[in-house]
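Lab channel / #folding
Pinned by the channel admin:
"Please post every new chain as: sequence first, then the structure tokens as a reply. Keep commentary short and put observations after the output so the thread stays searchable."

First post following the new format, from NK:
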Amino acid sequence: MIRKRRQAQKMTLAQLAERANVSVSYVSQVERGVANPTLSSLKALSEALGFTIGSLLDGGSAEHEDDADGVAVLRGGNRRRVVYPGSGIANELLSPDLQRQMEIIWVEAPPGRGSGGHPHQHEGEECGVVISGRMRFWVAEREWVLEPRDAIYFPSKLPHRWESIGDGDLVAIWIITPPTF
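Reply from TO:
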């Protein structure tokens, strides 16, 4: 998708690398599937191309039942799912699309993987709940270890990041308003 977007904009590897503040060889490796981008570098690349990581989830191919009252049912096998190459991290959109008031994401991550070393900040609020596994979560200068059934709620303008820890895979549900992913 990155290569297609870059080429559609008639942008060179060097131009994209400069805009995303990464090396030309790194962009080339990501496009060829050789390098596994962190969430932070994927976000920098997508923003440099004028799209959000969330657009990977919002491709319109997810099937859902939608009625005139705005009720949508998304069946388990038909939701839009993005797996980050080589990381084992997968995000699945539980909300029908990113055009609503909130986005809801099912998150899966093996131990040792997470949002990357750089904290994220944006407008809005977030709430997450751990279903299984364990999550280390940082907001501003504070740190928590979240266990199954633990939840965290915070203003998204505060710098935040996370990592899956422990022996088992992390499964969590994440809610962000307004949609910003």
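NK: The CA atoms of residues 135 and 164 lie 5 Å apart.
TO: also worth noting, DSSP finds five helices and eleven strands in the chain.
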